[in-house]
Design a protein that fits this description.
Chain lengths: 159, 108
Protein backbone atom coordinates (compact mmCIF):
# COMPACT_ATOMS: atom_id res chain seq x y z
CA UNK A 1 0.00 0.00 0.00
CA UNK A 2 1.80 3.04 -1.24
CA UNK A 3 0.74 6.61 -0.93
CA UNK A 4 0.68 8.50 -4.23
CA UNK A 5 4.16 9.69 -5.00
CA UNK A 6 5.26 13.18 -4.12
CA UNK A 7 7.81 13.83 -6.80
CA UNK A 8 9.19 12.29 -9.95
CA UNK A 9 12.03 12.81 -12.41
CA UNK A 10 13.32 11.41 -15.68
CA UNK A 11 16.90 11.47 -16.88
CA UNK A 12 18.32 10.31 -20.20
CA UNK A 13 21.94 10.35 -21.22
CA UNK A 14 24.41 8.69 -23.58
CA UNK A 15 26.06 5.50 -22.40
CA UNK A 16 29.45 7.09 -21.85
CA UNK A 17 31.36 6.10 -18.74
CA UNK A 18 31.96 9.77 -17.93
CA UNK A 19 28.21 9.97 -17.19
CA UNK A 20 28.42 7.48 -14.30
CA UNK A 21 29.30 10.25 -11.85
CA UNK A 22 26.68 12.57 -13.39
CA UNK A 23 23.97 9.92 -12.94
CA UNK A 24 24.67 9.05 -9.31
CA UNK A 25 25.12 12.68 -8.26
CA UNK A 26 21.87 13.69 -9.97
CA UNK A 27 19.89 10.88 -8.31
CA UNK A 28 21.46 11.73 -4.95
CA UNK A 29 20.54 15.40 -5.36
CA UNK A 30 16.95 14.41 -6.15
CA UNK A 31 16.81 11.93 -3.25
CA UNK A 32 18.10 14.53 -0.80
CA UNK A 33 14.55 15.93 -0.71
CA UNK A 34 13.73 12.96 1.54
CA UNK A 35 16.39 14.10 3.99
CA UNK A 36 18.37 10.83 4.02
CA UNK A 37 21.42 10.23 6.19
CA UNK A 38 24.89 10.51 4.64
CA UNK A 39 25.13 6.72 4.72
CA UNK A 40 21.77 6.17 3.02
CA UNK A 41 22.80 8.64 0.34
CA UNK A 42 26.18 6.91 -0.14
CA UNK A 43 24.44 3.52 -0.46
CA UNK A 44 22.08 4.90 -3.10
CA UNK A 45 24.91 6.50 -5.08
CA UNK A 46 26.84 3.25 -5.09
CA UNK A 47 23.82 1.22 -6.24
CA UNK A 48 23.06 3.73 -9.04
CA UNK A 49 26.69 3.70 -10.11
CA UNK A 50 26.67 -0.12 -10.36
CA UNK A 51 23.44 -0.20 -12.37
CA UNK A 52 24.52 2.56 -14.77
CA UNK A 53 27.94 0.94 -15.23
CA UNK A 54 26.18 -2.33 -16.11
CA UNK A 55 24.11 -0.56 -18.79
CA UNK A 56 27.23 0.99 -20.31
CA UNK A 57 29.62 -1.96 -20.14
CA UNK A 58 27.31 -4.94 -20.49
CA UNK A 59 24.09 -3.58 -22.03
CA UNK A 60 25.70 -1.51 -24.75
CA UNK A 61 29.20 -3.04 -24.55
CA UNK A 62 30.69 0.43 -24.90
CA UNK A 63 28.70 1.25 -28.03
CA UNK A 64 26.62 4.39 -27.79
CA UNK A 65 23.05 4.02 -26.59
CA UNK A 66 20.68 5.77 -24.21
CA UNK A 67 20.51 5.06 -20.49
CA UNK A 68 17.22 6.05 -18.86
CA UNK A 69 16.65 6.75 -15.19
CA UNK A 70 13.22 7.26 -13.71
CA UNK A 71 13.01 8.07 -10.03
CA UNK A 72 9.98 8.56 -7.80
CA UNK A 73 9.87 9.87 -4.28
CA UNK A 74 7.27 8.68 -1.80
CA UNK A 75 6.86 9.91 1.73
CA UNK A 76 9.77 7.84 3.05
CA UNK A 77 10.96 5.85 0.07
CA UNK A 78 12.72 6.33 -3.24
CA UNK A 79 12.10 4.05 -6.22
CA UNK A 80 14.71 4.16 -8.98
CA UNK A 81 14.38 2.51 -12.40
CA UNK A 82 17.49 2.28 -14.57
CA UNK A 83 17.05 0.94 -18.09
CA UNK A 84 18.97 0.34 -21.29
CA UNK A 85 17.97 -0.94 -24.73
CA UNK A 86 21.06 -3.08 -25.05
CA UNK A 87 21.80 -6.76 -25.43
CA UNK A 88 19.92 -7.98 -22.36
CA UNK A 89 20.87 -10.67 -19.83
CA UNK A 90 20.38 -14.31 -20.87
CA UNK A 91 20.58 -15.73 -17.35
CA UNK A 92 19.60 -13.23 -14.65
CA UNK A 93 20.16 -15.62 -11.73
CA UNK A 94 23.70 -16.27 -12.86
CA UNK A 95 24.39 -12.57 -13.43
CA UNK A 96 23.34 -11.89 -9.84
CA UNK A 97 25.75 -14.45 -8.37
CA UNK A 98 28.54 -12.78 -6.39
CA UNK A 99 31.85 -12.75 -8.29
CA UNK A 100 30.19 -13.85 -11.55
CA UNK A 101 31.33 -11.75 -14.47
CA UNK A 102 31.33 -12.19 -18.22
CA UNK A 103 34.36 -9.91 -18.49
CA UNK A 104 36.97 -11.13 -15.97
CA UNK A 105 39.88 -10.05 -18.15
CA UNK A 106 38.91 -6.39 -17.70
CA UNK A 107 39.30 -6.46 -13.90
CA UNK A 108 35.55 -6.67 -13.32
CA UNK A 109 34.77 -7.88 -9.84
CA UNK A 110 31.36 -9.40 -10.50
CA UNK A 111 30.05 -7.69 -7.36
CA UNK A 112 27.67 -5.19 -8.99
CA UNK A 113 24.36 -6.95 -8.26
CA UNK A 114 25.56 -8.06 -4.82
CA UNK A 115 26.26 -4.44 -3.92
CA UNK A 116 22.92 -3.24 -5.31
CA UNK A 117 21.10 -5.92 -3.33
CA UNK A 118 22.85 -5.22 -0.06
CA UNK A 119 22.73 -1.41 -0.33
CA UNK A 120 19.07 -1.13 -1.38
CA UNK A 121 15.96 -2.61 0.25
CA UNK A 122 14.58 -4.06 -2.98
CA UNK A 123 16.13 -4.88 -6.35
CA UNK A 124 14.29 -6.37 -9.30
CA UNK A 125 15.77 -7.19 -12.71
CA UNK A 126 13.77 -7.51 -15.90
CA UNK A 127 15.61 -8.35 -19.07
CA UNK A 128 14.91 -9.54 -22.60
CA UNK A 129 17.81 -10.62 -24.79
CA UNK A 130 18.45 -8.07 -27.59
CA UNK A 131 15.72 -5.77 -26.22
CA UNK A 132 17.18 -4.44 -23.01
CA UNK A 133 17.35 -4.53 -19.24
CA UNK A 134 15.52 -2.64 -16.54
CA UNK A 135 16.57 -2.57 -12.90
CA UNK A 136 13.99 -1.40 -10.38
CA UNK A 137 15.28 -0.71 -6.91
CA UNK A 138 13.99 1.06 -3.86
CA UNK A 139 15.23 2.27 -0.53
CA UNK A 140 13.28 3.35 2.51
CA UNK A 141 14.57 6.44 4.19
CA UNK A 142 14.42 6.08 7.93
CA UNK A 143 13.35 9.54 8.94
CA UNK A 144 14.62 10.42 12.34
CA UNK A 145 11.60 11.49 14.35
CA UNK A 146 14.10 12.74 16.89
CA UNK A 147 15.09 15.75 14.84
CA UNK A 148 11.68 17.34 14.99
CA UNK A 149 11.06 16.42 18.63
CA UNK A 150 14.46 17.80 19.68
CA UNK A 151 13.60 21.02 17.95
CA UNK A 152 10.29 21.20 19.77
CA UNK A 153 11.87 20.43 23.14
CA UNK A 154 14.49 23.07 22.48
CA UNK A 155 11.80 25.54 21.60
CA UNK A 156 9.69 24.76 24.66
CA UNK A 157 12.68 24.96 26.95
CA UNK A 158 13.34 28.48 25.77
CA UNK A 159 12.26 31.17 28.21
CA UNK B 1 46.29 10.60 -7.45
CA UNK B 2 49.50 11.63 -5.69
CA UNK B 3 52.55 9.40 -5.77
CA UNK B 4 55.49 9.31 -3.36
CA UNK B 5 58.44 6.94 -3.44
CA UNK B 6 60.54 6.40 -0.32
CA UNK B 7 63.86 5.15 -1.65
CA UNK B 8 65.17 3.89 1.70
CA UNK B 9 62.24 1.55 2.33
CA UNK B 10 61.50 0.95 -1.33
CA UNK B 11 57.97 2.08 -0.42
CA UNK B 12 55.66 3.41 -3.11
CA UNK B 13 52.72 5.35 -1.69
CA UNK B 14 49.66 6.26 -3.75
CA UNK B 15 47.21 8.73 -2.30
CA UNK B 16 44.03 8.37 -4.34
CA UNK B 17 42.23 11.71 -4.58
CA UNK B 18 39.57 10.82 -7.17
CA UNK B 19 36.18 9.17 -6.86
CA UNK B 20 36.64 5.54 -7.95
CA UNK B 21 34.23 4.20 -10.56
CA UNK B 22 34.52 2.33 -13.84
CA UNK B 23 35.38 5.57 -15.65
CA UNK B 24 37.98 7.09 -13.33
CA UNK B 25 39.63 3.78 -12.49
CA UNK B 26 41.06 3.40 -15.99
CA UNK B 27 43.29 6.43 -15.55
CA UNK B 28 44.23 5.50 -11.97
CA UNK B 29 45.14 1.98 -13.08
CA UNK B 30 47.41 3.15 -15.91
CA UNK B 31 49.18 5.58 -13.60
CA UNK B 32 49.63 3.04 -10.78
CA UNK B 33 51.05 0.36 -13.06
CA UNK B 34 53.37 2.86 -14.71
CA UNK B 35 54.77 4.06 -11.37
CA UNK B 36 55.12 0.50 -10.03
CA UNK B 37 57.10 -0.54 -13.06
CA UNK B 38 59.21 2.60 -12.88
CA UNK B 39 60.19 2.36 -9.20
CA UNK B 40 60.08 -1.43 -8.69
CA UNK B 41 59.10 -1.02 -5.00
CA UNK B 42 59.12 -3.68 -2.28
CA UNK B 43 55.98 -2.23 -0.67
CA UNK B 44 53.05 -0.57 -2.36
CA UNK B 45 50.48 1.28 -0.23
CA UNK B 46 47.21 2.75 -1.49
CA UNK B 47 45.85 5.53 0.75
CA UNK B 48 42.04 5.91 0.54
CA UNK B 49 41.72 8.85 2.93
CA UNK B 50 40.56 11.27 0.21
CA UNK B 51 38.27 8.82 -1.62
CA UNK B 52 34.75 10.21 -1.24
CA UNK B 53 33.12 7.63 -3.50
CA UNK B 54 33.94 4.09 -4.58
CA UNK B 55 31.89 1.37 -6.25
CA UNK B 56 32.80 -2.19 -7.24
CA UNK B 57 35.34 -0.86 -9.76
CA UNK B 58 37.57 -0.36 -6.71
CA UNK B 59 37.48 -4.11 -5.97
CA UNK B 60 38.56 -5.06 -9.48
CA UNK B 61 41.22 -2.38 -9.36
CA UNK B 62 42.70 -3.63 -6.09
CA UNK B 63 42.68 -7.29 -7.18
CA UNK B 64 44.46 -6.27 -10.37
CA UNK B 65 47.12 -4.27 -8.51
CA UNK B 66 47.55 -7.14 -6.05
CA UNK B 67 48.40 -9.43 -8.94
CA UNK B 68 50.68 -6.85 -10.54
CA UNK B 69 52.50 -6.26 -7.23
CA UNK B 70 53.06 -10.01 -6.87
CA UNK B 71 54.44 -10.07 -10.37
CA UNK B 72 57.12 -7.48 -9.58
CA UNK B 73 57.83 -8.95 -6.13
CA UNK B 74 56.17 -6.20 -4.08
CA UNK B 75 53.79 -6.43 -1.14
CA UNK B 76 50.49 -4.56 -1.43
CA UNK B 77 48.77 -2.81 1.48
CA UNK B 78 45.92 -0.34 1.92
CA UNK B 79 45.45 2.42 4.48
CA UNK B 80 42.95 5.02 5.73
CA UNK B 81 39.85 3.19 4.53
CA UNK B 82 36.80 5.38 4.99
CA UNK B 83 33.62 3.73 6.26
CA UNK B 84 32.02 3.44 2.82
CA UNK B 85 35.21 2.16 1.16
CA UNK B 86 35.69 -0.44 3.90
CA UNK B 87 32.08 -1.61 3.51
CA UNK B 88 32.67 -2.41 -0.16
CA UNK B 89 36.04 -4.07 0.33
CA UNK B 90 34.68 -6.19 3.18
CA UNK B 91 31.80 -7.36 1.03
CA UNK B 92 34.28 -8.74 -1.50
CA UNK B 93 36.51 -10.51 1.02
CA UNK B 94 39.57 -8.88 -0.51
CA UNK B 95 40.86 -7.66 2.87
CA UNK B 96 41.68 -11.28 3.70
CA UNK B 97 44.37 -11.01 1.03
CA UNK B 98 45.49 -7.43 1.42
CA UNK B 99 46.54 -6.09 4.84
CA UNK B 100 45.20 -2.78 6.15
CA UNK B 101 48.15 -0.82 7.43
CA UNK B 102 48.25 2.35 9.55
CA UNK B 103 50.19 5.52 8.83
CA UNK B 104 52.30 4.89 11.91
CA UNK B 105 53.42 1.54 10.61
CA UNK B 106 54.10 3.14 7.29
CA UNK B 107 56.47 5.83 8.51
CA UNK B 108 58.12 3.57 11.12
Amino acid sequence: MKEPFDNEMNLEFLSKSANEAFARITVAAFASQLDPTIEELADMKTAVSEAVTNCIIHGYENKIGIVKIHAKLYENEIVIEIADSGKGIANIEMAKEPLYTTKPNLERSGMGFTIMESFMDYVHVESIVDVGTKITMSKRIKREEMNSSTEISQMTSMP
Amino acid sequence: METKFYEKDKLLLFKITEEIDDHSVQKIRRRADYEMERFMPKRVVFDFDCVTFMDSAGIGFLVGRYKFANLIGAKLEVTNLTQSVRKIFEMSGILKLIPVTTVKEMTA
